[in-house]
Amino acid sequence: MTAATEVAPTALPATQRFQVLSYLGMLALMVGFGSPSGGLIQVPITFLLKNKLHLQPHEVANFLLVSAIPLYAAFLFGFARDRWNIFRRKDRGLLMLFGAIAAAGYAVFAFSPPTYMVLLVGVAIVTVAYNFVHAGQQGLASQISQQHAMTGQVGALWNVFLVLPYLLTYLAGGLLSQSLEGKDAPIAARILFLVGAAVMAAVALYAAWRPRVVFDNLRPETDAGGALADLKRIATHWPVYPALACWFLFSFAPGANTPLQYYLQNTLHANDVQWGEYNALFAAGFIPTTLVFGWLCRRLTLRTLLIWGTVIAIPQMIPLYFIHSVDQALIAGGVIGLLGGLATPAYIALFIRAAPPGLQGTTVMLASCLYWVATRFGDVLGTHLYEGGGGGSAGFGVCVIAITVVYALILPTIFLVPRGLIDTPDA
Hints:
By secondary structure, the chain is an all-alpha fold. It is built from 21 helices and no strands. It has one domain (about 15-420): MFS general substrate transporter like domains (Growth Hormone, Chain: A, Up-down Bundle). The longest helix has about 30 residues, at about 115-145.
């Protein structure tokens, strides 16, 4: 056998499907909370850089760009997931080992001085361990969703449980930053990293549990072709390319991160808590339409949902062009979240379906890699557009136009996806 054997998917009974989705959802929630690039950790770090170290917008964007270097090679961690079998527990082994390593990394940096270089190196090192955890969590979810014809449901669940950590952590992150304004940076950084350590330790413990309904329904997918054969197999698998291109374009939003933060705080005079509230409302806005997708994905073809989700999402960021106050920005945050909630799980379901059997980890971590490349480089480009446009509303308006043009390019990309991959609903 030189390639993982394709076997027709089998639908699970509703009770078992609910139990599997519950297990995967809780795992995704904890992994999301522990992300060094997520709201709980990243938001207070950006405030430390902005308010304590007094960095300019382009300097914060450059920090985020450099600290995310391990994320740009995320596919290597996914490839390792597909080939490794740590402790003979496959994904659980990755989660246990590297969850513990990430927790230890957070703990070490909790007691280090919060200088620019310490923060940069600390985030980068923890991100390496976190990438293995992320690969195990996403590879497991993708593999079981392929095997049981539930890619749309997992895509919806995936998005909800990606959003919830951002919703809660942006609120908590903003409040944490505001509460630490009067204290020195070492205490702020210590609290920050100790919370991350506790979360990743919880992930390692959760992975030690083996619910039968999940793992007895998971068919092993082995491959005897070797690493080079696997690389060739994914490189020549055409459906992966348009699927990942859609995800890349949707993630590339120049101006939606650092320029938006500086626009809201410097031009509209939002405080740290209000910036956190904006991001929480933006994240919360995704949930209702994502749940609608979870209901529709068993009734409509993925192709239909991809097209209409994209049409709705193209003008997603335009409401931000018309805001003139913090209150308006908070309302706009919820609206633009709603507009993106149908497209996001559709793109997730698409790249899960496009993954070759046995290489789900590589495929989903390629998507993760592209997300971070698009996000970080989009942020740098957006910062240049914002500052080049004179900052304020004029500079941010240029960013909104750029985002809308990029999103419009997704629609023709969908028509490059093989029809046989997306012309069916779940199950």
